[in-house]
Amino acid sequence: MSEDATLYLTLDEVDDLFEDYSVVDSLESGAQGFVFKVKREEKELFLKIYKPDMKIRAEREVEKLKELDSPYFVDLIGSGNIQIGDKDYYYAVTDFISGENLKNVIKVRKLEDSEMRKLVISMCRAIDQLWEHDIVHRDIKPANIMKREDDFILIDLGIAKHHDLSTITKTGMAVGTPVYMSPEQLAARKNITLKSDLFSLGIVLYEAYTGQHPYGFNYTMIGRINPTPIKSARLNYDNKIANIINYLLKTRPIDRPFSGKEVIEYLMEGDNSAV
Amino acid sequence: MLYKNLGYRTSCIDDISGVMLLPSGINREYLKSRINDNKYSDRKILFDPQLYLTELIVEEDSDNIVFPRLTTYPWFAESENYNSDKYQNITEWFNEHKENYSWPDSLPVSDIGINQKIKHCLDFQKEIKVSKYILPVPIIKNAEDGFTEQLKWIKNALEHKSEYNEDFLASLTIDDSILLQSDFDDNTVLQTILDNISTLRALDGIYLVILRNKYDTLYQISPRIASSLLEISYLIGIRAKKQVIINFEDVYGLVCMGVGADGFATGYSTSKRKMSFSNFKSSFGRSFPKFYSHNLIGDFLSETDLNKIRDNNLIQMIEDDKTDLSEGLFAALKQNQSAANVPEWRETQNHTTTAENNRMKRINKVVEKINDRDDSKSKVNFIKDWLLSADMKRTYFSERFEDDPLSDESRHVRVWRKVFEDFLNKYNL
Question: Do A190 and B148 touch (CB under 8 A)?
Answer without folding.
Answer: yes
